[in-house]
Amino acid sequence: MEELKAFAKLMRPRHTAQIVGIVVIVSIASHGVSKQSLYAIISALFLSIAIYFIDDAYDYKSDQIVHSQRPIPKGLITIRQAYLAGAILLSLGILFASMLPFYQFVIFLVLSFIANAIIFFNFKSILRALLTASFIGALFPFAAFPELKIVLYGLIVALPHVGGSIAKDFIHSSGDRIQGLKPPPDWSKYLASAAFFLCSALVWLPKILNLVNWFYVPPIIATHISCLMLGVRVLKGHYQKVYFYGAIGMLSSLAAFLLGGI
């Protein structure tokens, strides 16, 4: 039972719910309750869980220092088990994605490549932030046909992830120093802040281009305000509320997309 709980914890339910939640909402809104939506959701679920299994297996040495409470450092799951489970889940994800239209399958392969590159290559903070944001943004054209509106939706969600990823690196900088890793350069907080401010303006573009209806406006105001607050906080070096305001921005954005029309 304890081992099952450890595997469940390794799945990172909160992060997996974010990735899969995007695909569920966008895919069903775009393709309805169909086999296409089902295969997209299942493949995204397997990919997400596989990412976290492989990531924890690869990072077990640093987790022994920074996240000693995680299942692998605690000895509840072996590195081999995590790698094996991750490889199986990733293979299943590719299998289900291969049943999708060709453009979705190609995007899924790109998503898989980006995710594994982030894990296995020691990218600097800014490049890692850009790749992470690219992964999140690409979920939108994966779940729905990549028309202009969907691409804009992806950018609206991806840009805050640039700022959030950099801010997270500042939060974890003390742990990075213990591991002998360089913290993000101080100037990168300006890039993170700029990403939030840019997103606060970009959220209005779908309405300006008349791609959405007026129901889009009320929830996107919450996204706009969240991005402004995040931009100001990060600019001042206050990183601790990034997750809280980021969650508000994410949920209000998805509500705006649904109400405005996907």
Describe this structure as you would to a colleague:
This protein has 262 residues and is mainly α. It folds into 2 domains: 1-121, no CATH class; 125-262, Up-down Bundle (Four Helix Bundle (Hemerythrin (Met), subunit A)). Helices cover 77% and strands 0% of the residues. The chain is built from 13 helices and no strands. It has helices spanning 2-10, 13-31, 35-58, 60-66, 79-97, 102-120, 125-143, 148-171, 173-178, 188-202, 205-208, 217-235, 242-260. Helix 3 runs antiparallel to helix 5 (79-97). It is globular, with a radius of gyration of 19 Å. The model has no long low-confidence stretch (mean pLDDT 90).
What are the salient characteristics of this protein?
about 260 residues; mainly alpha; Four Helix Bundle (Hemerythrin (Met), subunit A); 13 helices; about 75% helix
